[in-house]
Amino acid sequence: MLKTIPAAEAKNKFGLLMDTVQREAVAISKKGRTSAVMMPVHEYEEYEQLKLEKLQRHVEKGIEQADRGETTAIHNKDELHALFKTIKQENRRKDA
Known about the structure:
Layout: E1 3-6, H1 7-12, H2 14-21, E2 26-30, E3 33-38, H3 41-67, H4 77-95
Parallel strand pairs: 1-2
Antiparallel strand pairs: 2-3
């Protein structure tokens, strides 16, 4: 479980927070809601690498679909936003 501390405590004990974050991720809450997460730099770098790999897989899939003639025409920004929303929802279902 992710350790959570209030924003005021994070501000007042920043040095301690930095020491803790070297070992584990820490959530920072404001008004009872998590608003940020601090994590060790190696975990952040791993996260960024995973995001890049996922993006590369999506691009490869898109190229394969285009090569098969499976394309979608976008005529305006509303259609583009609707397409992105649909893709996001599909990805969330797959990830769940």
